[in-house]
Design a protein that fits this description.
heterodimer; A: 494 residues; mainly alpha; 73% helix; B: 502 residues; two-stranded antiparallel sheet; 21 helices; 74% helix
Amino acid sequence: MPVYFLEIIVVALGIIMLLVDAFVKLEDKRSIAWLGMMGLVVTFGLLFRVQWPESTESPFWDFYTTGDQMALYFKGIAILTTLGVLIMASDYSRIVVDQTAPPEKGAHPQSGLGEFFALPMFACAGLMLMSSANHLVSIFVALETVTIAFYVMVAYLRRNVGSLEAGVKYLILGALSTGFLVYGFAWLYGMTGSMQLDEITTALSGDNVNVAGSLFAFALILVALAFKVGGAPFHFWIPDVYQGAPTPITAFLSVGSKAAGFIVLLRLVDPFLSSGELVGKVILAVTVIAVITLIVGNLSALPQKNFKRLLAYSSVAHAGFLLMALACTPTTSQAGEFLSPAKVIAFYLGAYLLMTLLAFLVMTAVRVKMAGEELSSYRGLAKRSPFLAFAMIISMASLAGIPLTAGFFGKFFVFQLAVQQQQWFLLTVGLVGAGAGFYYYLKIAASMFLSEEDPKGDHSAIPVSSLSRIAMIVLIVLILIGGVNPSIIMGLLP
Amino acid sequence: MSIILEIIVFLPLIAAIAIGLGAPARFSALGTAAITLLLTLIVAVRFDTNVEGSFQFASSRTLLDMEGFPTLSLAFGIDGISLVLLLLATLVMLAAVLVSPQEREIKGSSKLYYLSLLLIGGGAIGAFTATDLFFLYAFHELALIPTFLMIGIFGHGENRVRTAWTITIYLGIGSLILLVGLIMAVFALGGSTFAIADLIALAKSPETGIATEQQTWIFAFLLVGFGILVSLFPFHSWAAPAYAEAPAPVAMLHAGVLKKFGLYGLIRIAMPLAPEGMAAWLNVILVLLLGNIIYIGLVTVAQKKLDRMLGYSSVMHMGYVFLGLAAMNQLGVSGAVLLMFAHGVSIALLFGLCGWIREKYNTVHFEELGGIASHLPKLGLLFAFAAFASAGLPGFANFAAEVSVFFGAFKDTAESLGWLQWTTIIALWGVVISAVYMLRAFRSLFMGPPMEKMASPDELTMKERLPHFLLLATLIAVGFVPELLNQFIRPAVEGLFLLTAG
């Protein structure tokens, strides 16, 4: 099966879900989500049966990479993220129904829910296209497909001021970053005369490079992508948008959007790194952003009292570690001996997917029951729902990078790159960040296990749907296996 | 390929999972601890003491083998040094489970209590038997979160949550520093493998060994990293409050076993991989270890509560182990290994008794207790033995160990006394200090007239005596026949020197 069928299948699935919502009478609209999940599981299976084209004559292949295992890996991340988001969304549907307009007389009590399940599919298709995009145009189109779907999803709870505020913030800042990106693309085209990444690489590694112009293009692109992945100082939208968006969408933003941002970043930085004249300055710029991101993300996470904001800053911190890996790119002469940053970043994102989805699954269950996302909602969780507390502690241990979890290997690989490249300053900042991480992730463990429950509150167990329970168990097992044997993720990489 | 070590390592972890899923907590924990101790004894009996410097009962499964990253394998194996520590870990784990309260007496989840206990013990066992550097590090970290929860939930005193935070963050940061040191060492040696034996072989060969200047850096990271885990002065401030406020079984496991990991790491990793680094930092180590012995010794004397006093005394005794290592000869290092065992057993015994006293009298304050021996003579006798052992009286394992540490440190005297010898002379005063605080504690708790307001509990039951007898018997047996353990330690340490000297 040709590789681009995957995107087509996902888009078709999204359209079918919308049609089912419009034309089929359903008792419970959550069955639309189940339809989507089944479709995604099948699509994920098809990932392993992809055939690469024999001839790449067609102009299509200027826009789309071929023979690219890494792209498949990122497509897999997109599909799994969307699957997780749909599982959460179906648990979350009660809140979506509450927070959207009251139905008119005779309308379905769950009207408006269908789109909430269908939109992630379109975002997923965009993410998948992004991981194969090989041309400035296709990168831009894919990025905007994703972003526009997100604008709608973030502001979906239209009776909720927080959600609307988040939507507006995301729209304005997203538009701004798009502007930077396009301007950067224009400069890049002006400097190299091409929009195809391979040709740009050739042009930049030639002799007649306009250093100032190319660096300007790079700076604009870096700023725009730092917006997308949450690199400081362009991270200001993250806490507010994460807090306001519906919880499943926050998870989607935090995993899917970040992963896609990083693969675009990797692809766009690559031509600059192969240029002898630019590489030093490019690495310096990435290092500066990485240092600021690590410091800002980790230190701002420390005092947070709202769980979503805490995870928002933690996602900034993780972006910092990922940028740190990118900043430790070996020079071309060493490339064979060392792990490539691309591989490390891909691994890190895979582990990040597992642990973040797990955290958000638990968070969704707690949010639905407790109507709150403050850390205080988690007080005494260990007594009420030991399983949820256990799942959360595994997720937090992995995010903090405690050994025998997948998250540890992510940090290990990053630190290893820093030691090999002798980036001592960056390494020190990374260590301080990881040390701070111990504190803020354990803070969640502390509120679950060490604080007493609110005596007046409800002490009954928090219900978990069997689907999310299965998803949590799978994620826990994967995190622990990945912590002992990283080859379950590394084996998927080229 | 022998799987007995894998069974010993994974049994506690599997039991912990089983308890989490609903197996009877105390019963499973007790059974697991007994079986692991039994298996360890079988290993000890079948251990070949004629083999020098290689791992026995080895098993290895390659997990990750890719370009640009060292081969990662789940590998276990023991030499004499790790065998002794494995014995220590399984013995103390059994005692710790035995002194743990019955399920119904635990405030909070008894599942969590026993599960955490098994994870702490299992982590230590894994760390001592792993022959892959990565897993050696990783297993030690397994104890981090269970310790946090144990102290925070089941600990004593109002500050327990704060203490739980302190120890976790402190040890977490220590292990991050350690991690950097380990990564630096692995990649300075070519970054092709994590297998400890291969790394040592690379380090001793002049072509692939690490350059002196680099060794100095690496050793500095390793010293600080391991030093934090061992509570080396001035990185000790986490230890005493944590041990004082932890539940007795956790204090036993942590002070007795887990803390030895830092020392084990220095012997196993830091000294063989960076011997010149060690030489460069030797004088600094000597000063720091005097900080442990003399400064912390005096701090111990000033304590007014038994739990804190024991906590500080365990910090203090680490200084002797460092002295043995600093001697860098056969006698000193063997003494250090034996002392790790002896100290682990004796401090576990003392913390066990301290926990019993706290439970029955609701206080461990010296001023609120007195004359216990007059109505509980058996407890008094047990405590006296434990205190004498800890102070290093002849007839106990601690004495045999301390003597060989001191002789080792003094052995290579040339015509004049060097830094090491002067340090030894000053360190000898530590023995007096330990006698002072141990005897003072014994006098104020057990001698004199009983306090009026004091509770009067019954004597230890047979069940309660069992774990303490177990530990005390070990101390006496090894004290009278140090060869019991020295037969394992000697060839291993010789192997170590063959390796490092080569």
